[in-house]
Amino acid sequence: MSEGPNVLKMLIVDDSNIIRRRIERSQQIDRLEVVGAAANGVEAVELFRRTGADVVTMDLTMPEMDGIECVTELVRIRPDVLILVISALADKATAVEAIERGANGFLCKPFTDRQLNGALEELLAGR
Amino acid sequence: MFRETELRIFIDGALRVFETLTNQAATVGSPYLVTDGKPGTYDFAGVIDITGIRKGLVYFTAPRGMLTVLLMRMQETDTSEENMRDLVGEVANTISGNARRDLGKGFVISVPNVLANASEGVGLPHARCFVIPINWRTHAAKLVVCLQ
């Protein structure tokens, strides 16, 4: 995808390689360009600083630094970042906590391609 | 204390994972309690330690052939052993994480610990172990739930 004023840079954070690859392969939003992928929160913060990503998909259960902690850190660095949490943790309390920490949306695993793209569209519509 | 009726949570979770990831439904056999010996493993096992309001573990174990076809159904072209390990851990993580919809945030799950070619099996806690047989296409797998 060519860079342009409307293109948003996306970072994918998940400790599963196949999920990272699946999100990259399945996302069909023209305005999004994947600029990096991280396997834990520590890597994510480093990549976020380096790439200046506008949009982040964030797993929660990860080694090193978990997703909730990472959301907090990314929002501290850049308050207007858009974060879609994609997690298997399906309880309402976890979704509420993620939103309170600064995430903008929540998609529960397992997800279909349609659900992923719908959640990303909704995320961008709120920008 | 873990109740047998709560097995439904894990059965539903397993069926949802297969249906959503592959667009092909799986079926489950009758769950059974392991009373003698160990539940056993196939080629790969993704183990989730459970702490908080429940203690024990949940693991998903599957043979290489099933994981290869699962990856292909997910449009994944890399069917390496590394990705099979990744997948078996992700399935275990997803089923366990989804259980929090019913069991709540106090059902705390670890990141997956993956065993490959684990002939010695999984180290089991002092808890009753239920086996949920899973059939998908021509393949068989197991979800094992050992919770106090």
Observed structural traits:
heterodimer, A: 127 residues, alpha/beta, Rossmann fold, 5-stranded parallel sheet, 5 helices, 5 strands, 21% strand, globular, B: 148 residues, alpha+beta, Chemotaxis protein chec, 8-stranded antiparallel sheet, 4 helices
Describe this protein's structure.
The complex is a heterodimer of chains A (127) and B (148). Chain A has 127 residues and is α/β, with parallel strands linked by helices. Chain A has one domain: Rossmann fold. Chain A has five helices and five strands, in the order E-H-E-H-E-H-E-H-E-H. Chain A has helices at residues 17-26, 41-51, 67-77, 92-101, 113-125; strands at 8-13, 32-38, 55-58, 82-87, 105-108. Chain A has a five-stranded parallel sheet, sandwiched between helices. The model of chain A has no long low-confidence stretch (mean pLDDT 94). By secondary structure, chain B is an alpha+beta fold. Chain B has one domain (4-147): 3-Layer(aba) Sandwich (Chemotaxis protein chec), CATH 3.40.1550. Chain B has four helices and eight strands, in the order H-E-E-E-E-H-H-H-E-E-E-E. Chain B has helices at 7-22, 64-73, 81-98, 100-103; strands at 27-28, 32-33, 44-52, 56-62, 107-109, 113-116, 129-136, 139-147. In chain B, a hairpin with a 3-residue loop joins strand 3 (44-52) and strand 4 (56-62). Chain B is globular. The model of chain B has no long low-confidence stretch (mean pLDDT 93).
